[in-house]
Amino acid sequence: MKGRSLNTAAAALTAAVLLTSAACAGEFPTGRFAVQNNGHFHNFTTFNCIDRGPTFCENLNRKKLSDEEKKYIQGVPVKGDLLIEKDQNTGKYTAAGNLYVLNNCLYTTAERHGQDPYVKTECGYSEDAGLLKCSLINPFRNHQTGEYTSVTFYLYPDENGIVIDNTDVRSDDTGIDQDCAQKLLNTVLTPEPEDEFRHNMYISSKLTFMVVDGNLNAVWKALPKQVQSRNKKAQLEWVKQKEKKCGSVLMKGSEEQLTAMYKCQLDETLKQLKVMTDYR
Fold first, then answer.
1. Tens of pLDDT along 77-89?
2. What's the whole-model pTM score?
3. What's the number of domains the chain is made of?
4. Domain boundary at 175, 191, 207, which?
5. What 3-state class would DSSP assign to 44?
6. DSSP letters spanning 6-18
């Protein structure tokens, strides 16, 4: 799966797809693919402020961000990631991945399938279109009517990767749902090298931690002075134990090591946010 890239006021078209050998007029490329925009790749786990709600990044200290990190917070209209593999014995393709559209749509797959945000979809070869044909029933919900819309989208390989060439929307109403589907057109999923993927995860984990750490600092500053005084020792001990467990945010290391450190820091900070609600 590819890309950069919660609580989403965004739109999501999520698909884990099975591609049969009959699903290709020619050879499909294999490997990791993602939507590339604004200089980096975007997938479901890629950080950005836009699809996490209007106040998600309010405590993010933007002054500490590099030029590259600032590009992440902007968000993009379409995110996607796809991993395509081919069985050398059978010639069949398997693909798992996601397409997400940022618009006035709901994250309906989570609503309709419990906690699992992924929908598995059968894809086959369309003789009339000469492309891969993947149909999703009810992926989009209209905020105004509450009705769902079915969408069929077509993909084909080209020299740049995999392109969404056409989208067929079936619905009694148009408007918002139609806009969601139209954003998919001409979206290109391009190959993403493994080092780019790891770099994406590193930046995203760092920025997510910075947001939550900013939230914790804001909660602490909002506490009455006497409450801060009574709990300062415990707070300093927590910082000490957190760094002992996770490592310091000032540590040096590979991007994989730093990603693990930031994820650990994030988990511990989220726990401490809950503890601070009981400070008296």
1. 667 777 777 888 8
2. 0.72
3. 2
4. 191
5. coil
6. ---SS--EEEEEE
